[in-house]
């Protein structure tokens, strides 16, 4: 099973042309890496690559017209080059409810919750005066989760689902810290 990050990054840059999806993919990778360190350290690379490549088909299929196309095409591309394994493929499918793939494993649950929280944290950062993730506090994330008009498209149900594994505030802190660690890669300069 190939899990080489260099191969994954090259594949991401080849298949995805939408810049914010590339940044989002790096953010989900960082969150998934931290979640793996907590729940499944021996499979950290698998978890991280699942996060990095979960939206690989974003620019390859018309998922807005047919949401169920998002995920299966990614799996098809990964199978063609023998990247990953069935555990990874299932998690990628499970992150999109439109595929009707059941959430069975801790990896499935983590990618399902980890995908939307990165966009949610990004949205919070952009309402701060300095528009920088380094200003975001965990308290802001938990507060904004209750404000359904804020980032109304964010899948709060998916994010809250992490509570089957850990308290939400711990998840929010883990995700925020993971994103801060790679802030420059995801479009936020480090504070001076």
Give short descriptive properties of this protein.
0% strand, globular, Hypothetical protein af1432, 192 residues, mainly alpha
What is the H/E string? Answer: HHHHHHHHH
Largest sheet: none
**So how many helices?**
9
Secondary-structure content class? mainly alpha
CATH C-level name: Mainly Alpha
Which topology does CATH recognise? Hypothetical protein af1432
Percent of residues in helices comes to 55-70%
Overview of this protein structure:
This protein has 192 residues and is an all-alpha fold. It has one domain (5-181): Hypothetical protein af1432 (Orthogonal Bundle), CATH 1.10.3210. It contains nine helices and no strands. It has helices spanning 5-15, 19-39, 44-53, 72-80, 86-94, 106-127, 138-146, 156-160, 168-181. The longest helix has 22 residues, at 106-127.
A few lines on this structure:
This protein is mainly alpha-helical and 192 residues long. It has a single domain (5-181), classed as Orthogonal Bundle (Hypothetical protein af1432), CATH 1.10.3210.
